[in-house]
Amino acid sequence: MLKTLSIRTGLLSLLAVMTLLLLIVSGIGIYALTQSSSSLQRINHLQGEQMVQLNSGYTLILRARNEAGQAVRMMEIGMLDDAAKAVKNINQEVALAQKTLKGVIDGGVADEQGQQLLDKVAASLATYSQQGINPMLKTLNDQSADGYYDLLEKTLIPVAKQFDNDMQAFQKWSEARGQAEVSAVQASKTRVLILIIVAALLTAGIIVLAWLVLRHMLLKPLSASIAQLENVAAGDLTHTLNAPASQEFN
Fold it and tell me: How remote is the C-alpha of 220 from its chain's centroid?
């Protein structure tokens, strides 16, 4: 084969193989970048947007609960005006918290398990609002300390605990999902690096092989030509150039 293969054909074949390897590596890199970008977008949406808003709403409810106890204490010691101001602030915080949580819940999550946990949060939030938060606001607006303590003892604590448990379960899932996405990105990066290294080694091997082949194709006819010239210089015209050698530089 090497006797009939021309240098031009060999170089074109080498160029074709190198181009194919380049296209394969480029395609793998583009695919990996696309997958990594999608994973990072999912992480950002879940951790950077949804969880931030969810935690913000959750924190507002906890703050309102804490301030409610302080407002009731003000009522008990006769600081009714200060208690009324505190109750007004509590109403605003609860309204903002419910709006924020509703926005996250309505948006949902693109994961079956995550959506199930978020549905539990939505259900416990509805129960918490109906049986705990709204009645608490009513007792505060009515400045009824006895009503507040009665609600706290009978209803508010159990429904608040259920909501807290569902929130914590969703938060744990969110953290685990984020870690899984990060691990997937790292694994994809590792695979791409391995493929690039393999492609680089293959390219180096092909280059070395091509050099050996071209060296053989160039030096063999060159040696034959030198021998022919030496024969001619010596006055010996009986030797003829081999037919394959005469085609090496076509």
Answer: 57
pTM surpassing 0.70?
A: no
Q: Over the stretch 97-107, which tens digit does the pLDDT of each residue have?
A: 999 998 888 88
**Backbone φ, ψ for residue 126 (5° rounding):** -60, -45
Q: What are the CA-CA distances from residue 138 to residues 4, 66, 135, 142, 148 (Å)? A: 98, 16, 5, 6, 9
Residues 75-121: tens digit of each pLDDT: 888 888 888 899 999 999 999 999 999 888 888 887 788 889 889 99
**Closest C-alpha to 82, from 92, 93, 71, 90:** 71
Hey, CA dihedral for 79, 56, 91, 126, is it positive or negative?
Answer: negative
Q: Which domains does the chain have, with CATH numbers?
A: 47-172 (1.20.120.30)
